Each structure stands twice: as C-alpha cells, then as structure tokens.
TrEMBL record:
Pfam families: Glyco_trans_1_4. This is TIGR03087 family PEP-CTERM/XrtA system glycosyltransferase. Gene3D superfamilies: Glycogen Phosphorylase B (3.40.50.2000). InterPro entries: Sugar_tfrase_PEP-CTERM_Stp1.
Length: 379
C-alpha cells in the first residue's frame, strides 16, 4: 500500500506538539505501508538518517512567505489567511507529480492548511484537522479589539466554511479529542499518545533546583503559551513567595523574556525538557485557550509529576483524577502550596498519573483506528 502524507510542518524532529503527533502517525503508517512525504519546512537543514529512512519519497519545501503578504493575498482573494500563508505552487506541483507517478492508495493530510492540496476526487482521504482552527480564531476574536477583532472574526467565519466543505468530501475527518471532534459533526477523535519509554523519570537526571520548582513547558512563541505563562507569573507567583517558576521552551517572545527575574527563569531551548520535568515539584498548564489534548500535560504525567492545569488544558484528557484543576490565581496557589507541603501526596498523585498514561495513552493503542480507516495491514 502507498500513502501520500501531507504536512504543514515536516514531522521531524518530534520536538513540539504538532510534530510529535505527525511524527508518530507517520511512523505508524510507515511500519505498515510505503509512505511518501510532502511537507513544508521553516528553515533549511539536514534530515537525520533515521528520520529520512521512514519514508520513500521525501519532498520538503521551505516556507518563506511573509505574514503581511499572506494577509494581503487573503484580503484580495476572500480566503482565510491560514490558507494563503501555506499556499505554494511548489507543493501543488509536488502533489500532482506524485499522484501522477505513483500508485497512491490513500492520502493523509495533516492540519487544515494542507487540505487545499487535496485532489477534487480521490477514493480514500483522511483529513487530520488536529484542532478546529475556526474555533481557535473565534476565541481570539472574543479577546481582540478594533481591526484585529474584525480580522479574527473574518478568519473564524471563512475557516469554518472551509472546514465544513473539506469534511464533506473526505473519507474521514479526525481531531485530537472527543470535545474537538464534536465541533464538526461526523468527525472522529484519534487522540494523541505518549512515548512512556522515553518519558520515564527513572532514565533522567533532574536539573539542580535550590527552591521549590514549578515548571511550564511549551513552544514559547505560541500565543496561548505566552498568555498562560504571563498570567501565571504575574497573578499566581506573587502568592507563592518561596517558589521558583521555570518557563521551559524554545523561541521565547520579548513578552516572555521580560518575565525573567529572581524567581522566574526563562530557559529558551533546552537539550532535554525531561530534565526540567524531572526536577519539577509541580508542573503547571494554566492555558486559557487550549485545543485538543495537550502533549505537555501527557509528558508531565508520564514523568510522574503532579500537574495543576486549567479546565481548558485538562479537557479531553482521561486523567481519572490524577491531575488537579484550578481556575483562579488563588486556586492555583492553594493547590500548589498543598502539593509542596505534602511531598508524599504529590508523589502519589504523580505515580498515579504515570500509571494512567501508560494504560491509556500508548501511541499504538491510540492510532489503532487508522488500520480500519486506511485499510492497513499489520506492522
């Protein structure tokens, strides 16, 4: 069987949320079929041999279109910016060429931006939206003002129409969680998993910590992460005078870097995020806007850390009470103080979290529905 895999960002290395999902899906498919990859990359660079070996043909196109140009194209054509930002004739040519040369049995499109490259008719197409982007922009619009509010509303409206049109012509539409799938009728949830062999606290040396350590991990130029750490540093940390807050993740924005101080560390990119998770007394995920299942929460749970998360970050995760949920700054502070004051209780919560993740979120188990959807044979 031959599968064409389209991705808005090359699936390797699996070092951020979307790439972790796409990498594991691609690996699952490649163990059962011949996979050809067409994807964007954000910068030129060599592909590790073990990653290149997972696919047959591999066509990577560097995405260089400035956001201003994408916005101008969107306004001129009546399309969403999310699509014009990823509109590239080189990708279209590569897709058409592969479909003409190879006996492609199925197409797997990862992220809604790649739906624009799907042929008009094809017998088996899986559209992995991951999250419903139109809902994300609707949430952005609610917090925006002036022209930006208009742009976010426009994006939400146009994307919603596009998502519904795409869902109506593919074999299956997938989302990362049941609540997300429910937003587009007829869709299915294929949840994220976690590599519990890699995320094992027994294999990692924690970074040194002189004070009770609270850790947040994530891509730090992603708006929901930026808003979350700024809110936590400004609203919660003043209530926890004896604790230290570490913001761990690549590409911190100026707003994030400005949070650094005597009790807040902004690491930037680190060699191994597991060392920071292993050192954490508590891991927090105070996201006000979160779509689908949060990898950062699963990773912390797999590392047997006690997690305190917002309702949005906890939604979609079958945590069975193995993480704590908080809303207001006072809720976070009280819960974190309780965990810091009772290390045995915190350890029990973390141990239960790891046990839950092992039993519920192994990648092979999560991706098993793809066998039926794609007609895959055994690995």
């Amino acid at each position: 069987m031959e599968i064409l895999f389209l991705a808005h960002r090359a699936p390797f290395p699996p070092d951020r949320g979307d790439r972790i999902r796409s990498f594991n899906i691609l690996s699952y498919l490649a163990a059962r079929a011949r996979v050809h990859l067409v994807a964007f990359v954000e910068e030129d660079g060599a592909i590790a041999p073990e990653h290149r070996a997972r696919v047959d043909e591999c066509i990577l196109v560097r995405r260089t279109k400035p956001q201003v140009r994408a916005a101008a194209e969107a306004l001129a054509t009546g399309r969403p910016v999310s699509l014009t930002a990823f509109a590239d004739c080189r990708i279209k040519t590569a897709v058409n060429d592969l479909l003409a040369r190879r006996s492609i049995d199925a197409i797997y499109a990862f992220s809604g931006q790649m739906a624009q490259y799907l042929p008009g008719q094809f017998p088996r197409v899986i559209m992995d939206f991951v999250d419903l982007d139109s809902a994300k922009f609707a949430a952005y619009a609610a917090d925006a003002h002036g022209p930006m509010r208009w742009m976010m509303q426009r994006e939400a409206r146009l994307l919603h129409a596009f998502e519904r049109q795409v869902a109506g012509r593919v074999t299956a539409s997938l989302f990362v969680s049941e609540p997300e799938a429910a937003l587009l009728p007829g869709s299915l949830a294929v949840e994220n998993g976690i590599d519990t062999l890699r995320y094992d606290p027994a294999l990692v040396t924690p970074v040194p910590a002189d004070h009770p350590l609270i850790v947040f991990t994530g891509q730090m130029d992603y708006r929901p992460n930026v808003d979350a750490v700024a809110w936590f540093a400004e609203r919660v940390m003043p209530l926890l005078p004896d604790a230290h807050f570490a913001i761990v993740g690549r590409a911190p924005t100026p707003r994030v870097r400005a949070l650094a101080g005597p009790r807040v560390t902004v690491t930037g990119e680190v060699a191994d995020v597991r060392s920071w998770l292993a050192a954490a007394d508590v891991v927090v995920a105070p996201l006000h806007l979160a779509r689908g299942i949060q990898n950062k929460v699963l990773e912390a749970m797999a590392m047997a850390r006690p997690v305190v998360a917002s309702p949005a970050a906890a939604e979609g995760i079958d945590h069975a009470g193995t993480l704590r949920v908080a809303v207001q700054p006072e809720d976070y502070a009280a819960t974190i103080r309780e965990l810091l004051a009772g290390p045995e209780q915190a350890d029990q919560l973390g141990t239960a979290a790891r046990r839950q993740v092992i039993g519920r979120y192994g990648w092979d188990a999560r991706l098993k529905p793809l066998d039926t959807l794609l007609g895959l044979g055994p690995a």
